[in-house]
Amino acid sequence: MSGDLDQATMDRLFAKARTYSKFTKAPVSDDLLRQAWDLARMGPTSVNCQPMRVVFVRSSAAKERLKPALAPGNLDKTMAAPVTAIIAHDMEFYEQLPKLFPHADARAWFVGNEAMIQSTAFRNGTLQGAYFILALRAIGLDCGPMSGFDNAKLDEAFFKGTTLRSNFLVNIGHGDAAGLYPRGPRLDFDEACRVE
Amino acid sequence: MSGDLDQATMDRLFAKARTYSKFTKAPVSDDLLRQAWDLARMGPTSVNCQPMRVVFVRSSAAKERLKPALAPGNLDKTMAAPVTAIIAHDMEFYEQLPKLFPHADARAWFVGNEAMIQSTAFRNGTLQGAYFILALRAIGLDCGPMSGFDNAKLDEAFFKGTTLRSNFLVNIGHGDAAGLYPRGPRLDFDEACRVE
Known about the structure:
The structure is a homodimer.
Chain A: H1 7-15, H2 30-40, E1 52-57, H3 60-66, H4 72-80, E2 83-90, H5 97-100, H6 114-138, E3 142-146, H7 151-158, E4 164-173, H8 189-192, E5 193-195
Antiparallel strand pairs in A: 1-2, 2-4, 3-4
Family (chains A, B): Belongs to the nitroreductase family. HadB/RutE subfamily.
Cofactor (chains A, B): FMN
Domain Nitroreductase (chains A, B): 18-158
């Protein structure tokens, strides 16, 4: 692959995209969520393990179940968002490996190795969460990712008796710029990187 | 923001991008690495904490220091790649918060809370790693991310006596399609998601 993307695209995905706290009343269809999924799922994961699982919280009843787990600062904006995605991962993701990575018995590399299961699920589920954030932006949606909530409480409400564990939340909609603060500063290359 | 990106862009970032094991001899300039950084750093992190730190391993001497930490299957391709990025995170990322998030004393939320430091550094450093993978693709580079290496050995070789810890590696260059396997299957929306 060669050549670079145009500036408008760079701006939409990175430079001018913002974390929104407020969204317009415009609904977010299931079809748009599926479009974002179909892009995000193509991003790379270790041995193609794809541990991310997502619950899209849309109904009032489901929002009420989410409510007690939220940090106070995230409560009102999450209740008002058109959809809130619970980005989770399946701690038994390796059961899918015979299908997802048929070249080797990759399942055997994980079974019984709790530390490797934990780090692989968390790392790769988070990578997929980031692909999903950018995929939402790519199809014209805006989002507000958050980690300010009680994971154990949320897991009890949504994933009890399953092998799914919550990672972070993403409010999704069409952003209302009226709710934006000035953009926070970013670290320069020379503050965060070195070339050896 | 509204409207969606054109198909060619979607393809470049997601649908047709591949994980490369082989790269052409074309060099990767520091300027390109800086361009990718300048895009990736704009992605969202919790309280704007930006814990990711990157070492770009380019010289033969630095590649030799990396070598003993690599899993056998990742050895030759990494030695041959134009550049290998060590995606790491700073376990004292919170010391930057007075500058990066001046609205509140966010530093105080982390100091002494080892579990929250660990999960925040790992989660947000990984999100930033994913933004970086897509930023590399956005500027026309290809990459091969890997977690098959000994983190402790790598940290000893590159981060001894510091608060930096390795997360994963990314080989970077111009991909050689001759090294590609058929693409692995992906989970469908209905296999991995639900709407409530």
